[in-house]
Amino acid sequence: MIVLSFALLFALLTSAWGATGPQIKGEEVTYEANGVTMKGYMAYDAGVKGKRPGILVVHEWWGHNEYVRNRARMFAELGYTALALDMYGDGKTASHPKEAGEFSAEVFKNFDAAKGRFNAALETLRKHRTVDRRRVAAVGYCFGGGIVLNMARQGADLSGVASFHGSLGAVQTAKPGAVKAKLFVAHGGADSFVPEEQVDAFKKEMADAGADLTFIVYPGATHSWTNPDADRFAKEYNMPVAYNPEADRKSWEDLKSFLDRIFAK
Q1: Which residues pair with 37 in a beta bridge?
Q2: What are the structural domain ranges in the chain?
Q3: pLDDT in tens, 113-126
Q4: pTM for the full model?
Q5: Which of 203, 110, 119, 206 is nearest to 156 (CA)?
Q6: 1.20.140.10, 3.30.300.10, 3.90.226.10, 3.40.50.1820: which CATH number matches 24-262?
């Protein structure tokens, strides 16, 4: 009888925890940009009542894959609604670095079309029933980091923008006062894809533009250090990339602090 009582108590406690714990829901979403069908993924906590800030998540040069979806779910676990967008169209992904390079180069070569795709995703996120459209940020990884920083340079109406191991080069240099979003840049101290002169030029550009910039260097981190698949990419394609769990953990905590700041009411 005592055993049964303990079993019943455990069941009740487990049930109570499940009712109050995260109830992450993922939804496939489609939207259009300049006549092209885009395929994204929306994640949010169905157990949270009312509207909350939104996070637009921009993928690496590989395209809209499971990595960016997992990041969207991670944001949902923090209480945000996150949309992992599609910058290539039709959910297209690359299977080789050469192909990924071609896809990403095409996007930057026609940045007006890229802006249209970004803004279509942004509006899709803002229209979601759970999102406070006044409080939205964009977070990008590698290629995606370059996208969100260039959107910020061109005056995107966002609360904040965060780039992880992203390119820092400008499609169009930011003019004084143009950057409305607060910026967070997480940079690997051993990232050979982003030379030191590009870092210096970016910091000067943001200072000249009067941007609110938080720039953090994670010592020893190479390119793509937040992606657990980076070690496989390094082995298969002989790429100078590596997953760095300590930098990944620390940068996630730093990002959470940044988001708390920009979304504070």
Answers
A1: 32
A2: 24-262
A3: 999 999 999 999 99
A4: 0.92
A5: 119
A6: 3.40.50.1820
Which residues are CB-neighbours of 11 under 8 A, at least 6 positions away? none
Exposure string of 64-87, with b = 16+ CB inside 10 Å and e = fewer, is: bbebbbebbbbbbebebbbbbbbb
37: phi then psi, degrees, rounded to nearest 5: -80, 125
Neighbouring-strand partners of residue 93: 63
The dihedral through the CA atoms of 216, 221, 105, 200 has a sign that is positive
Contacts of residue 257, defined as CB under 8 A and 6 or more positions apart, other chains included, come to none
pLDDT tens figures, 57-68:
999 999 999 999
Decide: residue 214, CB within 10 A, 0-12 exposed, 13-18 middle, 19+ buried.
middle
Report pLDDT digits (tens) over 70-127. Answer: 999 999 999 999 999 999 999 999 999 999 999 999 999 999 999 999 999 999 999 9
pLDDT at residue 22, as a whole number: 85
If you search the block for the tokens 């049930």, which residue do you land on? 15
Q: pLDDT tens digits, residue range 147-173?
A: 999 999 999 999 999 999 999 999 999
Which residue type sits at 132?
D
